[in-house]
Specification:
By secondary structure, this protein is an alpha/beta fold. The chain has three domains: 66 residues, no CATH class; 133 residues, Diaminopimelate Epimerase, Chain A, domain 1; 329 residues, TIM Barrel, CATH 3.20.20. It contains 19 helices and 23 strands. Strands 7-14-15-16-17-18-19-20 form an eight-stranded parallel beta sheet. A six-stranded mixed beta sheet has the order 8-9-10-11-13-12, sandwiched between helices. Strands 2-6-21-22-23 form a five-stranded mixed beta sheet, covered by helices on one side. Strand 10 and strand 11 form a beta hairpin. Helix 10 crosses helix 11. The protein is globular. The protein starts with 6 loop residues before the first strand and ends in a 24-residue tail after the last strand.
């Protein structure tokens, strides 16, 4: 025996996703995935062999090798989060859960208020300055509307209350919350945001706020409320988020759109308590650009304590489900108080500012991610990318929900990689059909098939905390495109199970420029792996949603389920508590 592996896995379906080599013999690119009896050997956190079980055991088994029989389960590359918010995943576990089925049980305003009251009295809520909940959706509430200041005054008049919309682009506060924000009838709407009003403005009044806040009017509320969480909880947000992501099979995650202060907190936390997964961070573009330093981010291709900064994120519009995304054509049904030709609005109205940010990032070697939901925002971004030229890493259009076919052509021409929030088809597909876009336009949200037809790689993400970081739901939504009601939304945009798996493995690795060490099970790559209860490439497409994540392996070590004293555990970090906010 020349060498001894630390771990040999065999006896299951091994889906390698390898893009070259003897792939047909060892699974992955074949229609039905890997072959029973294949094996993977791991040494020092790296894959050292992929091939027949007998050869693996003869060449690589030694007295200290752990040999694991998968028992017919599926082994895939560890999942790669193409866009999410690590701190937001942690936040989901801390504040009141206002989500609807299947992620929660809020159905109406009464149950929403009950959740907030209960949280206010629990161990975390009692020590929080604000009463905070996340995840309500006016599309699923029985009343079909947002909670108002009057609704939230029924929760408390003694403490400020914030209910955050599932998009994380809107929210509602009670009367005391408005007072803390200094929002009144004399307060104009900020650029890129809206303070919704009780009545039409009568100059010089802008109208008394009704408690519902959009975009840049909402951001100060979330910043203020979340800063008032107990410090012990803020200190654990990143670690809790990492452990939760690992439970869904992710071995690389993203902190997408953070502040410079939170980036430092992320690095300090990782140095004190190692994360169970790798973390790639992107700083808010406006903050990075305003720094006097040439590289305030510290962009690198190398992970330090499992963290690396990769570039910047721009936010160019809002949320389609919240009807704040910037569209080229009017919404089917505009929000209350808006005209029939309402198309949403830009987050950065001046295209020259966007062009300068993209151009500066490309010059400095920073990867660019841009939140662009509406097609008008995509037009603004495409123009800026065309002027700036290609970057050293793929430029990424985050969400691209309403991308037109001609814009996908432009993505292909300019090398823009679309990362679709494919779970929109489930969570808001029916809302898109009946309220946001109408039946015809809704068919082509998250147009993955258009991208594939043009030879483009695309990725798919969960955007947690907007949705749970549920890898299986990400896969299922791409393959079935079923809405909450069971309707298939745009069957012509469906992709195969293999294409869906690629979107959260090897193609996501390409998005990060890490395809040489992640995204597939190949000799020389990190042993980032996930064990599933069944092979998504062989089960009935409608059965993908029932697959379970059994185990997550990072660099050869099991990180989920965690060991009693595993990498995800430990004491809270001694790093400064992050001041967390989300630009989802």
């Amino acid at each position: 025996m020349a060498e001894q592996a630390d771990l040999i896995l065999h006896g299951g379906d091994i889906v390698t996703l390898a893009e070259h080599g003897d792939e047909r013999e060892h699974g992955g690119e074949r229609e039905h995935g890997g072959e029973r009896g294949d094996a993977v050997a791991v040494k020092d956190g790296t894959v050292v062999f992929v091939g027949p079980e007998r050869e693996a055991l003869e060449r690589w088994r030694g007295p200290h090798t752990v040999v694991r029989d998968l028992g017919g389960r599926a082994l895939l590359p560890g999942f790669i989060d193409a866009h999410g918010h690590l701190g937001g995943i942690g936040l989901q576990t801390v504040i009141a859960n206002l989500l609807a089925d299947p992620d929660g049980d809020v159905t109406d305003l009464a149950s929403l208020k009950d959740k907030l009251r209960s949280w206010a009295a629990d161990a975390v809520g009692a020590d929080s300055e604000w009463i905070i909940g996340f995840g309500y959706d006016d599309a699923t509430l029985t009343e079909g509307r947002h909670p108002t200041r009057d609704d939230l005054d029924e929760v408390s008049t003694e403490r400020p209350v914030l209910a955050i919309h599932q998009s994380f682009h809107l929210g509602a506060v009670n009367s005391l919350g408005l007072k803390r924000l200094r929002y009144s009838a004399a307060t104009p709407d900020p650029e890129g945001g809206v303070i919704r009003r009780r009545e039409l403005a009568v100059p010089p009044s802008y109208g008394e706020p009704d408690g519902v806040l959009e975009e840049k009017a909402f951001t100060p509320a979330s910043d203020l409320a979340l800063a008032g969480l107990p410090e012990r909880e803020l200190l654990m947000l990143f670690a809790t988020g990492a452990a939760t992501a690992a439970s869904f099979g992710f071995t690389t995650v993203q902190e997408g759109g953070t502040t410079l202060a939170n980036l430092q907190a992320l690095r300090d936390t990782a140095a004190a308590v190692p994360f169970p997964v790798d973390v790639v961070a992107y700083v808010k573009a406006d903050e990075a650009m305003s720094s006097a330093l040439d590289d305030p981010i510290g962009v690198s291709d190398t992970y330090v304590n499992g963290v690396r900064a990769a570039g910047v994120k721009l936010v160019l519009d809002g949320s389609p489900q919240g009807r704040t995304a910037w569209l080229g054509k009017p919404y089917l049904k505009p929000p209350a108080g808006q005209p029939e030709d309402y198309c949403g609005y830009p987050a950065v109205p001046d295209g020259a500012v966007v062009a300068k940010q993209v151009g500066t990032a490309v010059e400095r070697g920073w990867q660019v991610l841009a939140h662009v939901n509406g097609d008008a925002a995509i037009d603004q971004f495409v123009k800026a990318v065309a002027a700036a030229g290609p970057g050293r890493r793929p430029t990424v259009a985050i969400h691209a929900q309403t991308a037109r076919e001609d814009q996908i052509d432009e993505f292909a021409r300019l090398g823009i990689l679309p990362s679709f929030f494919s779970m929109h088809t489930y969570y808001w597909g029916d809302w898109y059909r009946g309220t946001v876009l109408g039946e015809e336009r809704a068919q082509d949200i998250s147009p993955a098939r258009w991208a594939l037809d043009r030879g483009l790689r695309y990725t798919s993400h969960h955007d947690a905390p907007v949705a749970l970081p549920n890898s299986i739901a990400v896969l299922s939504s791409q393959v079935t495109r079923r809405t909450r009601s069971g309707h298939v939304l745009g069957p012509h945009q469906r992709v195969s199970a293999l294409e869906a798996v690629r979107a959260i493995t090897i193609d996501a690795a390409h998005q990060y420029g890490e395809q040489d060490r992640k995204g597939s099970i190949e000799v020389g790559k990190l042993a980032d792996l996930v064990v599933l209860s069944a092979n998504p490439l062989t089960v009935d497409p409608e059965g993908i949603r029932d697959i379970e994540v059994i185990e997550t392996i990072k660099a050869g070590a099991t990180v989920h389920p965690p060991a009693p004293a595993g990498r995800a555990g430990g004491a809270p970090s001694t790093a400064p508590a992050p001041h967390w906010g989300c630009s989802c």
